[in-house]
Amino acid sequence: MGIDDTRVSDNTLLVHDERHSEGAVAPPIYQTSLFTFESYQAMVDRFSGASTAPVYSRVDNPTVSVLLDKMCQLEQGEAAAAFSSGIGAISNAILGQVKSGDRIVCVEHVYPDTYRLLKGMCARFGVTTDFVDGRDLAAIEKALPGARIVYLESPNTWVMQEQDITSIAKMAKAEGVTSIVDNSWASPIYQKPLLAGIDLVVHSASKYISGHSDTVAGVLVGSKPIIDKLKLDTTPYLGAKLSAQEASLLLRGLRTLPLRMQRHQESALIIAKRLAEHSSVTRVHHPALAPVSYSLLKGYGGLFSFELGDEKNVPRFCDSLSLFRLGVSWGGHESLVMPAEASINQSGEHRAAVDFGVSPRTIRLFVGLEDPEELWSDLSQAFAGA
Ligand SMILES: *Cc1c(COP(=O)(O)O)cnc(C)c1O
Fold first, then answer.
1. Which residues form the pocket of ligand 1, taking CB atoms under 6 Å from any ligand atom?
2. Which domains does the chain carry?
3. Has 4 been annotated as catalytic?
4. SS3 content of the chain, % helix, strand, coil (to 5)
5. Separation of 111 CA from ligand 1 center, angstroms?
6. How far is the CA of 115 from the centre of ligand 1 (A)?
7. What do you get for the CA distance between the two ends of the chain, in Å?
8. Which of 126, 68, 70 is nearest to 101 (CA)?
């Protein structure tokens, strides 16, 4: 683990494992709740910290440890922790560091459930959040003094806005503020925020890391002191552990992550560029179409959004699609469509559209692994019918 200049490429790292027992190329799934000790002394040694043998799968499990090691190498971080969901990773990262009276600085237009966690539960425990425009460095600098955490999501996942991760990490460090980036959109293949000085990276592993829409999981990677402290005083007590079965699914997903990202990138760029030229579309939100000088992105994923000219046509457009299915989430094999108004406007959230940066005309697409020309035909016929 740790930062290493001599490391192999991500492509090799993700398919090449240490030999597992019996020469297996995939690690065994340790489907066990507890691990027994050979002797009284072995047990005493474990609890005194003299040994690191696994004790109980809520706290540690060897299959999960293989995943954590891979994630550390991939993000070039010192330590990692795995959770039963992305939001489990986010809530642990936040609740593990704040106390009543603390203040968080968060960029606007973050993942809706992150927003609800901050506005709802955190506020109930006396932790307030200032939401700032993530593109306004001066506003972030002004908000930082006295804050506990600065929380970024770059690019975010409704309007794909990027933040100046390097500058914000530097300013946060100077103010003693813990910096966190949700890196789910880019995946570790296309962005490594820890190398830019960020303290903690969050992944919803339900997305690209799983890559097959068959599991919900989350990972944190970052500085050893922060992860160690979380494992000491937070994660065992919130209990949102990842199972060995699901760790194994994530390890399977990681082996093809670079290949899948390349395909998502290529297909989504073809479609985004054609949409930008289309007479029914007024705007396309894709980082490649609005490049920023401070971008850390080495590539793009399959998720972007666009504005349809007339909001009345949104339902008919969505219903006319057959390869793009209506559904939440993204990052798997299959293409998806998500109309902002229908999906974000949960009961009682009248300001939702403003808070997430969307309009009733915003439609989000996830471009999966299907043939891009067939996906484009699907969209073209839906425009013709809408
Ligand atoms: C899906 C998602 C999450 C939450 O992850 P879950 O695994 O669904 O809990 C967090 N951040 C982003 C950007 C997401 O897309």
1. 85-87, 111, 153, 157, 182, 184, 204, 206-207, 216, 218, 329
2. 10-30+61-255 (3.40.640.10), 257-385 (3.90.1150.10)
3. no
4. 45, 15, 40
5. 7
6. 11
7. 52
8. 126
Q: Enter the tokens of residue 169.
A: 């990490």
Given ligand 1 and candidates 204, 215, 249, which is best to mutate, with the most ligand atoms within 8 Å of its CB? 204
Q: How far is the CA of 279 from the centre of ligand 1 (A)?
A: 33
- pLDDT value for 17: 82
Two tokens, residue 319 = 């219903």
Question: 58-90: per-residue pLDDT in tens?
Answer: 999 999 999 999 999 999 999 999 999 999 999
Tokens of 315: 């339902």
What ligand 1 atom has the least distance to the C-alpha of 217? 7
Other Cβ atoms less than 10 A from the Cβ of 322: the count is 10
Active site residue 7: no
The reported pTM is: 0.95
Tens-digit pLDDT profile for residues 10-40 = 999 999 887 888 999 999 999 999 999 999 9
Residue with token string 């300013």:
171
Q: Which two tokens stand for residue 280?
A: 């029914």
Half-sphere exposure in the Cβ direction for 193 (13 Å, CA): 32
